[in-house]
Write a structure and sequence with these properties.
The complex is a heterodimer of chains A (235) and B (258). Chain A has ten helices and ten strands. With 235 residues, chain A is α/β, with parallel strands linked by helices. In chain A, the strands form two sheets. Chain A has a six-stranded mixed β-sheet with strand order 6-7-8-3-9-10, sandwiched between helices. In chain A, 47% of the residues are buried. Chain B is mostly helical and 258 residues long. Chain B folds into two domains: 59 residues, no CATH class; 195 residues, no CATH class. Helix content of chain B is 79%, strand content 0%. Chain B contains eleven helices and no strands. In chain B, α5 runs antiparallel to α6 and α8 packs antiparallel against α10. The longest helix of chain B has 32 residues. The chains are: A alpha/beta (235), B mainly alpha (258). Chains A and B meet through α2, α4 and α6 of A and α7 and α11 of B.
């Protein structure tokens, strides 16, 4: 069952660059929330702050009401899984890739079932992941993250390196994961058509600040037009 | 032997360097300046160390030996740290690594009474250990830095899967350590077949019994293997930490500032 994520006044500074300048947003449980905004808005940084791949300078992220700043980051990252723009696979075989996380945690997982969940044939499990297509590799990376049985899934532009056909298939998979596993999903995307197809809610980020939250219906209705034009760079 | 006793003979070998310079000019390798600097530095440094060692032999003071070796460690650490730009705390990491490698290996040889505690042994053997540890340290630090930059995404992916920084960096450390240690392991394997190592050559030319020279060379080889292994492992373990926070996060500023 997915958990709710609440982001409150998050700031992140590297040297003199203020990448996040106070981001607040509510990510409801078991929904797909898209984070949109022009490039350089801090979308990827926000995801990394949620699972503590970076340490925010101030602010707090609550997971089902509990502050995450005091949690062991390794435990937190197993609860909040992350899929990156590029698959970044490093295992010798697809199977060892998928089982990497559980093995670190001293647990076992069913690699065949995980591959089935992401729509990959079990016969691929002994293959070197580098020999797969980028679309297949991205599925492996999703299976690798699901192996930890996370309750929240962060996805950082997971389809931007894929061709049109692979992109649509991953979009279907994202919706399926949300429906089947009740996963809370945070999807960073720069493609509004994708947001319209996949997301239930939209959070807009600009220059490191949160500029608003809408349901998909609101965002794609007349009232949301300003925000949409802003995202697509027409403002 | 006669020819080696004059400075003039050393200068004659410069003829060979002239060939190298001519080749560099002809092929436009742009190495003439570096070759010239190398020639002058080698001459000045070797002459200086020759006089220094001669002077220290005359002093018969253990303090002087320790001071000279410490100076060598300091210079080696500085050289290594310059090669490892972008590695946080490179100078203390290099100094600690090279220092420990030197003390551990030379100390062990002294403790086991393989070599006597005299300047005649300590200075040249210490210098060899320090020089080799320096090369290994530079190679390890640079490799860890380059691979972390290049494979940043994989490291981050592993961290996101609940890996500790040590677990996430382990493939990179493995490559860096192998890469730093393999050249010496290979040259140790082929020693005596393809080339005679420096210490042995020196002793034989100086008129020592070839068996005695071989005995010393074996000690030197094992000593170098030990010090290079210690240096590689220490440099790897000390340097990777400085790229991460205690909360298993890559420090973004370190790699971006490079």
């Amino acid at each position: 069952m997915g958990l709710e994520v609440e982001i409150s006044g998050l700031r992140y500074t590297v040297g003199k660059a203020e990448i996040l300048q106070g981001v607040s947003a509510r990510i409801p449980e078991a929904e797909i929330t898209a984070v949109v905004g022009p490039s350089g808005a801090g979308k990827s940084t926000l995801l990394r702050a949620i699972n503590r791949l970076i340490e925010p300078s101030s602010g707090e992220v609550y997971l089902d009401g509990s502050p995450t700043s005091g949690m062991d980051p390794l435990v937190l990252r197993r609860k909040i899984g992350m899929v990156f723009q590029l698959p970044a696979l490093f295992g010798a075989t697809v199977e060892s890739e998928v089982l990497y996380g559980p093995r670190l945690a001293g647990k076992d997982a069913d690699a065949a079932r995980l591959l089935e969940v992401v729509g990959l044939d079990i016969s691929l499990s002994s293959r070197d992941p580098q020999t797969l297509s980028v679309g297949q590799q991205q599925r492996v990376s999703i299976a690798r993250t699901l192996a930890l049985e996370p309750e929240v899934l962060l996805m950082d532009e997971p389809t931007s390196a894929l061709d049109e056909a692979a992109r649509l298939k991953i979009e279907d998979l994202i919706q399926e994961l949300n429906a089947r596993l009740n996963l809370t999903i945070v999807l960073v995307s720069h493609a509004l058509d994708q947001v319209e197809r996949v997301a239930g809610r939209v959070v807009l980020l600009a220059e490191g600040r949160s500029e608003g939250e809408w349901s998909k219906q609101e965002f794609f209705s007349k009232e949301g037009e300003l925000a949409r034009r802003f995202v697509s760079g027409k403002l | 032997m006669q020819g080696l006793e004059t400075v003039g003979s050393a200068l004659l070998t410069l003829g060979l360097v002239a060939v190298a310079v001519a080749l560099s000019l002809y092929e436009r390798l742009d190495l003439e300046r570096d070759i010239a600097i190398a020639v002058v530095r080698a001459f000045v440094q070797l002459a200086a160390i020759g006089y220094a060692i001669n002077y220290i032999f005359g002093l018969e003071s253990p303090v002087a030996v320790v001071l000279l070796l410490s100076g060598m460690v300091g210079f080696a650490a500085w050289t290594s740290a310059r090669r490892a730009r972008g590695v946080p705390y490179a100078l203390p990491v290099a100094a600690g690594t090279i220092g420990v490698a030197a003390v551990a290996t030379v100390g062990l040889l002294l403790l086991l009474q393989v070599i006597p505690a005299t300047a005649r042994y300590l200075i040249p053997l210490g210098g060899m250990v320090i020089g080799n540890a320096m090369n290994t340290t530079s190679l390890t630090l640079a490799r860890v830095r380059d691979d972390l930059t290049e494979q940043r995404l994989k490291v981050e992916a592993a961290l996101a899967l609940g890996a500790t920084s040590r677990q996430a960096v382990s493939p990179i450390l493995k490559t860096a350590l192998r890469n730093a240690m393999l050249p010496l392991i290979d040259s140790t394997k082929t020693t005596g077949i393809i080339f005679l190592p420096g210490a042995m050559v020196g002793m034989i030319i100086a008129g020592a019994d070839p068996l005695e020279a071989a005995r010393l060379q074996i000690v030197v080889m094992y000593m170098l293997l030990g010090s290079v292994s210690i240096a590689a492992i220490l440099a790897g373990l000390l340097s990777y930490r400085s790229f991460f926070t205690t909360r298993h996060q890559l420090r973004p500023d370190q790699l971006l500032d490079k």
